[in-house]
Amino acid sequence: MSDGPVAKILDVIDETSRSVGGQEHVFYFIHVKKGKAEAQVEIDNPEYTVSLDRNKGTRLGLKLDLQVSTKSLFIKEVLGGLAFAWNSTHPDSKIRPGDRIIRVNKAQGDAHSLFEECKKSEPLEIELRRGSAVPIAVGLHTVNKTGFANLEEGQEGDVVKVDEDGDSLMKFIGGSCDGKCQWVCRQDYDKFIFEDSDRYYLKRYSDFKELHTKLKTKVDAGSSPIKQLPAMPDDERFGFRRTMSSMGMGSFNQKRKEGLQVAVDMLLKQLTLLESEPALAQFFGQSPLPDVSATTKELLKERLAGLIAKHRKSEVIIKK
To answer: Stretch 284-292: mean pLDDT, rounded?
Structure first.
């Protein structure tokens, strides 16, 4: 595994014949391999405590949502500041999106009180509760920590599907369960170690353009660890070159794929952790698919699952 994150654009997929909706029907199939420091995600204890010193007024670096019903502050994003510094030195108790703040010093039981306490320029003892489930996605590798149902301790598997409730279908490898699939409820995720080293995505050119715009704003402001922003490959005009390429009469899509690969390589070479640049961490985050209609998303889920299976099969053949 690489010390830092790497991403490979494996293929260009034209979904014209599948009625994906909208004008943009070319997708890039991407395999992301996280670095060693980001690969493993494991939930040990549902609650944990961190100490962040705001004596000097340093920002917490958390994007928070006040949730009165749960009497807590929901963490939407880790943006930097004290939270990022804590995560850098406490890998076993990282503050993660999806966790909830349930106590700040003596304040608890009221979301507004928690929020006001977070604003104070003083040492803060913050108690948090982990999200109800690991941020789960197709492509995660799993290892069973203890015997569970018909699974043996140490049983390995891969997440092949995730439903709307966050439960996952896992395909197991080796042992008596070799090749078998089984649904696992999110409440049982604490019985597994999730290795988040491999993730797969379908992205559109417009998604890359949106990422480029976000990064340019941050780079120009000097607020990103990325110092050199690569140029984007050429856009198409009136869909002509893409149409020619899909007819086998041109190479526009392939050349644009190569240009996007050069850009992604340049970005990731400047980072040791994806999470050190939130815009990139979000781009290569939990959702493997772009923001499309529900019908299109179901079509793309099916397409992505097939592409992942084909890619993994080819990797096995190459290793042999």
So the answer is: 86
* Cβ partners under 8 Å of residue 284, min gap 6: 5, 7, 32, 199, 201, 274
- Residue labelled with tokens 């703040």: 101
Paired tokens of 195: 């290795």
β-pair partners for 46: none
Q: Of 17, 24, 7, 31, nearest to 202 (Cα)?
A: 31
Rounded Cα distance, 54 and 33, in Å: 35
Rounded Cα distance between 67 and 241, Å, is 49
CA distances from 139 to 167, 195, 211 (A): 14, 9, 23
All domains in the chain, ordered by first residue: 6-29+201-319 (3.30.1520), 47-129 (2.30.42.10), 141-196 (2.30.30)
The mean predicted confidence, pLDDT, of the chain is 84
State how far Cα 264 lies from the chain centre.
16
Band (pLDDT 50/70/90 cuts) for residue 175 is confident
Tell me: the pLDDT tens digits for 9-58?
999 988 776 656 556 788 999 999 887 666 665 544 578 899 999 999 89
Which H or E element spans position 77? strand 72-78
The C-alpha angle with vertex 143 and arms to 138 and 147, in degrees rounded to 5, equals: 125
